[in-house]
Sequence to fold (434 residues):
Amino acid sequence: MPPSTICKTVHQYNREPISEPDMKKLVEIAKDYSEVKNYVYQRYGGIKSLPKIYPGYTVQNEMTGSGLRARLGLPSVYFYLAVFDALGDIKNQWTQIKSRIEKGIRENENLTPEDRHYLRFVMKQSRCFESILLEKEMILSDEWKKPLEELQRDVDEKRLHQYLRRQVRRHLKKLHTDTVDRFSVSAQAYRYEEHGIYLAIKEKRKRIFIPLTDNNQYTSQLNICIFPKERNLIIHVPVETRIKQNDNYQNAVGLAVGIHTMFVTDQGNIYGERYSDYQYALSDYVREGNIRYSRNRANNPGRKKYTAGKRRLEAALHTYINAEINRLLQTERPAVIYLPKLPQSSKAGVNKKINNSVSMWQRGYIRDRLTQKCREQSIELVEVFGKDISNECSQCGTIGKKTKNIFVCNACGARLPERENTAKNALKRGQVNQ
Ligand SMILES: [Zn+2]
Fold:
């Protein structure tokens, strides 16, 4: 059964610049938050702490006893989130290490099949794994003792244990964070009010109020990113949204993705026709900003105004993209959309005017938004094989010619806009493979 909800992140923004004193208080929290994380990394990131980190109560208790919270004066609503935040990173690292070692075992030609079997067995049993790393005797239940002894008969266990320890030492990195611009907040530490949010700070029972640009209220754990210089913040909120079922969305739609226009359908309908206007405005601004910046670098120019301008143009572009994707879905009412696999750095589309990195990034944004919106409305999004998809005639399959955005087929006489031909092929390829 398909899931009925999906998780997405929504963002909230401050309505006006945050006052200097309030920003200072947020910075204090972020600094302490980092310090707690680094403390946890240092104390529990190593091999010796491996038995303590699952499920983590030991760490929590020890951290309570460590006196760090009192020394920092950080409210517990922040302190324990920082602890679990760091603990999550440590656990992630162990998961990664294990999968890297497993890969190494698979690819190591000096290991016999018996060696591999043995190594996999001990890695699966966390007790075994820990005692090998800590060079302690294995204390196992009978259930595991017997099979282990049988496996040990065919291998040089000392050598394999050394191998395992060496691999762990190789992959285990010291975790550390230098960022002091973000922290998480649990529901007890904030309260929404009319068009704003109250946040707990280090001073007891005091909260600061930050007016927000929207009036939405949430109850989940929030992640707050602060920008002290700009005196801004962004709140990241994870939310579960119910997937919508649109029973009247029944169509199969082929799409071509363009450089100047966002989408053309197999019926020749166009969405995001003004996309390149927004795109040019942004990339011109970025380019000119960079030129001006490098010219005046000696004067140590500030970039505050530039950053604000860039953000404004980017927001306008994104609003446009989202509105056009919505319009596409509402108009076409698709049950399924077929589109070519991510365009290769197409020769046809090279345009010097477009700042390449900006344009690539924005194209990624369009894809992401389309993917997300389709998931939210349970519309199937299918990528089809993209080779020659714009060169083939959608009527007869012969390779044709493209001139000035018109596709012409000499075999059957077809003549239609190039993107529409591509979209028709996307639909065709998608339906053949169903
Ligand atoms: Zn043809």
In short: The radius of gyration is 28 Å. The chain is about 50% helix and 20% strand.
